[in-house]
Amino acid sequence: MSWGIALPAGDEHTGNLVTELIDQVRQAADAGIGSVWFSQQQHVDAVTLAALAGQAVPGIGTGTSVVPIYPRHPIILAAQARTAQAASGGRFQLGLGLSSKAMVEESYGVPFERPIRHLREYLTVLRTLLTEGTVDFDGETLRARTIFGPAVVPGAEPAPVLVAAMGPQALRVTGELADGTLPFLATSRALAEYVVPTIGAAAEAAGRPAPRVVAMVPALVTADAEALRRRAREQFAFYERIPSYRDILDRGGVEHAGDVMALGDEETVAAELRRYTEAGATDLIVSQSGMGSEEDRLRTWRLLGELSAQA
């Protein structure tokens, strides 16, 4: 059981963003947190940050949560993953996601067509590249052919591949072809009743090991839970209009996405996080730890360090 945090944690940066994020990684390691996960944004690259953090802070695990597979070709992403894995000494984990039709088409100008087929073909190519170093694939949505021979990076064993899958088709493909899933805003009820059994059955049918379920949960230790609940409802409201998130919220019995966030004192937050492990989460990542004050963030990180030590 690994306890991690998602970065960036907060939007206030006064100097070099990369330097400040690496400093936060050191803080997390000092608090006893086992891993840090970088979100892909349009001004910084998550895989690069994970590689830098893994090199700068020995011992801590790094990952991405998550890199959209559109429009990054799997040959490019496999090379980035090998680089991050070597830089971190084998402690890197690659989290992927489909993103959404609006983001892919409006921001990247790439058609969001046949996403499940594309996910299947993408994972097929990516796994082959990471395990064999070469690929020759002509699919319905993807073509990939290496022309310079096997790509091998000493010290870079194949990184685990996790998919932010929540829909039933995406979960089945993930169970067949990836190492696990990385759901966000899936309550403990949604995990126990839907995510865990769906992906588990798919992996078993494919003859693969039991998949990991790395639950990303917004949480914050705070004395101002009521105000932060209102803020979370406002900030997370856009997820409620994305079909895959609306579905996972409904499966979890939640109307407002902001209500998934665990808020309160250490005992309250710890109890809520433990519900996810009881529901079948193999690992846990806490996000939104920068939503409150600096004191709130540090209290949250201390709690995660304590939970990590008890695991």
Could you explain how this protein is built, in words?
With 311 residues, the protein is an alpha/beta fold. The termini are close together. 46% of the residues lie in helices and 16% in strands. Strand 6 (136-138) and strand 7 (143-145) form a beta hairpin. Helix 6 (168-177) crosses helix 7 (188-205). The strands form two sheets. An eight-stranded parallel beta barrel has the order 1-2-3-5-8-9-10-12, surrounded by seven helices. It has a two-stranded antiparallel sheet with strand order 6-7. It is globular. It has eleven helices and twelve strands. The mean pLDDT is 94.
Features:
about 15% strand, about 300 residues, two-stranded antiparallel ribbon, alpha/beta, globular, 8-stranded parallel β-barrel, 12 strands
Helix-strand layout with pairing:
Blueprint: E1 2-7, H1 17-30, E2 35-38, H2 46-56, E3 61-64, E4 67-68, H3 74-87, E5 92-97, H4 101-108, H5 115-132, E6 136-138, E7 143-145, E8 161-163, H6 168-177, E9 180-181, H7 188-205, E10 212-221, H8 225-236, H9 243-251, E11 262-264, H10 266-278, E12 283-287, H11 294-310
Parallel strand pairs: 1-2, 1-12, 2-3, 3-5, 4-5, 5-8, 8-9, 9-10, 10-11, 10-12
Antiparallel strand pairs: 6-7
Concise synopsis of the structure shown:
The chain has 311 residues and is an alpha/beta fold. The chain has eleven helices and twelve strands. Strand 2, helix 2 and strand 3 form a beta-alpha-beta unit.
